Amino acid sequence: MIVMQPMIEAFPKKGRSTYRSSRLLHDLLRTGTTTFETRRIMVMRSRRVVLAVLALLIVGGAAYVAQNLEPSGVKMRAAAERFLNLLNEEQKQRATFSFTDQERFNWHFVPLQDEQRKSTRKGLPLEAMNAEQRNAALELLRSATSLDGFRRATTIMSLESILRDLEKNGAMVRNPDWYFFSVFGKPGTGRWAWRVEGHHLSLNFTVEDGKVVSATPLFMGANPATVKEGPRKGLRTLAESQDRARDLFRSLTEDQRKQARIGQHFPEIKARNQLPDVGKPVGLAASKLTEEQRGLLFDLLRAYTSSMPADVAEAEMNGIQEAGLDSIHFAWSGSPEEGQQHTYRVQGPTFVAEFLNVQEDSAKNPANHIHACWRSRKNDFGLASK
Known about the structure:
The chain is of the alpha+beta class and 386 residues long. Among the domains are: 1-67, no CATH class; 239-385, no CATH class. The protein is 40% helix and 16% strand. The protein has helices at residues 5-9, 16-31, 36-43, 46-67, 72-85, 89-95, 131-143, 147-167, 239-251, 254-260, 291-305, 310-323, and strands spanning 96-97, 124-125, 180-184, 191-198, 201-208, 211-214, 218-222, 284-285, 329-334, 342-347, 351-357, 370-376. The radius of gyration is 21 Å and the shape is globular.
């Protein structure tokens, strides 16, 4: 039920149902669970609540499908304008930048804080917003993601609560409200962009004349990758990007594995750059895959693009096919077994997917901390579109 809450919140309606679903998401992001009062509301009149939630999903789902007929860039513009219109002047100063500001390229996925344990990340954080502004910020996030993408992003935010409990008085602040929204330029006027970012999340979008020209860099991470204890035990935020790669690697013959394997793990993903610095592709060429294995490769690519809105994901996949499938390379290090370190990279002429699971989680479970990133080789931040 908890994992579904961001999806429920994705279809806001006025009245008490909205309040309840909004409160559920607020509790989830802040604590990783729900408050006693929220749970009591859910238990009392349970049949009516269940029916209301089902109706919300059905009606909201239909509205979502209808909304999907609009280009994502149009939806982002409307959501960004609503978000900005709700901010006061001080908040706008924190949330807005010129389109040419170099801060647009200053993306990162680690916690950023000073010696006083205050965040040094730019933008307006969720913690500085009231309930209406927060909902508008999440609406902006929803406008730029699929339902799966929204679920992954909000679940990543909520994992900060688990880290806070595991690390107690650790050196790093773990705060599910430390996710920052930044808008570059004026929405709907020529070229503009926006970003939502915090620990293990950096989503960057560039829009031109109502069309999304770039949805990268797209970084998602998870610590813990698999929740081992507590009420959310078994939760795997980024299961698809891990499992689809394992499926592909396990399908390889011994000769194919020799070509795919690299001698050491890939290095940490590089941030704060305008384009990915990954060098020439290494590993096994897609031209040497069977038809079934090529299908597994496509499943792996979709594990990343499935976080994007349908029209953006379709354009991304079309670009990959037009650039030539045979030149895509898959490289792997480590073991595909649970709890064992592994990294991989999938690289083609237009994109690169980087994945690392080499760190232990905050409870010292080995290889339970994922970093995964989808980049455009030439068009991060819409640089090839200018």
